Amino acid sequence: MTTNSMWRTTAALGLAAAIVIGAMPGGQPAAYAEQPAVSSATPIYGPQASAPVVKPAWQLPLAKFQQDGRTYTAALAEEGRVFALVTGGQLAAYDGATGKRLWKYGAGLKPLLTYDRGVVYGAAKDGSVYAVGTNGAKKWTAGIRADQAGSIEPIGDTVYVTQNLTLFALDRATGKLRWKTTETGGQYEAGLTGVTVSDGVALRSYMVQGALSSSQINAYDAKTGKQLWTAFRQGAPLAAKDGLAYSVMDTFMVGDDDPVNKSLHIAVLSLKTGAKKGERVYKWTTQPELPGQYRFGGAYGSAFLDGNDLYVYQDQAVARYDFAAYAADAKPVQRYAAPNGRDYQPLYRVYGGRLLYQNVHDHGILALKTANGQFVTYPGGVQPVQTDLFGNGLYVARADGTFDAYDFAALKPAFTVKLGSRDFEPTLKSGALAYVRAGGTLYAVKLPAGLR
Fold first, then answer.
1. DSSP states along 35-102
2. How does pLDDT run across 317-364, given as a tens digit for each residue?
């Protein structure tokens, strides 16, 4: 089975600046995590239309952390509870409906939290990693000195911890270090978060310097950490299953420079050896904007997998293919006219039957209906600072301290909350409540039935 960590709920420094597009291809959702379909710290919505003003049910001051001149907090909302770092860097749990504190744990903890299967994982200032049950009891502590950890990713019976070029593998039940590997070659530039595990092989992506800088997949034996193979100029796996990994190839400046006849190449690699077992090629033709002009990257020549649907961005169009029924030169199942690439970039996500795009100028949302190719444009404006999409609720925080909620399907405003700070972080949600973080305080807001 293939599992990917991006489905887990994680709170970490820098998360507010990320766009979270759900799981990476080939992943399965964690058992309890409620993840946003979109979480963006760029502006999307303008002034709220007429909607009832509501007040938070309760609020909680959080511990504040600084990085690169910005203030961050660390909190998760899971199974009707809030887990957060509070004064003194303590981990505390609260009843999500009432705000009643249930327990506290530790002190001086770092703002990195992950939740999976009833356990909260985090890191201490000395770099150790801990696991705490939802009753507040410590399960274990691993003294691995991951003081700069980028992610904690529980997968199967293992907890993977990424720290730039280092990857730790901990026993999930005991926290015992199974293995540790560090890439020391001078060509390595950075290690990316996100670990995929399938058929006893752990895959991780790195940025590597070659003739050109590009991404590289490294494969490790999941039991021992022994490096099995590397594949340079390969994107993070679209899928990993049945002994194979599927990855988009970086063909920039490698003979694929035809400005009209273009193609996207997906390598089919053996999970055990990295040997190339095949190559899938998806072709299309386009008209360059200027004679001889060649476009590559971004919306052009990129792809993502949604279940069995492979979406390939093809200049002025986006095509959907049946990933399970590949045939050479096969036509797409459906092809849609794409919005102007100068104005809109894809969010690499289908949500509610809509392919999501974001305006590169005012960061407004545009959705392409996959049933008929129709465009739906959401209200634009100025000064929003944080946008999150959960279920049928689109939540927009603006620089004047206003938090607005919209019905995503009906394009109608649902409610407004007036808060006193413009410093918003990603919204959290669990069940019937949304949890808004602004100015270092968490506010619990009850949701109407249509947004739960």
1. --SEEESS----S--S--B---SEEEE---EEETTEEE--EEEETTEEEEEEGGGEEEEEETTT--EE
2. 999 999 999 999 889 999 999 998 888 889 999 998 999 998 887 767
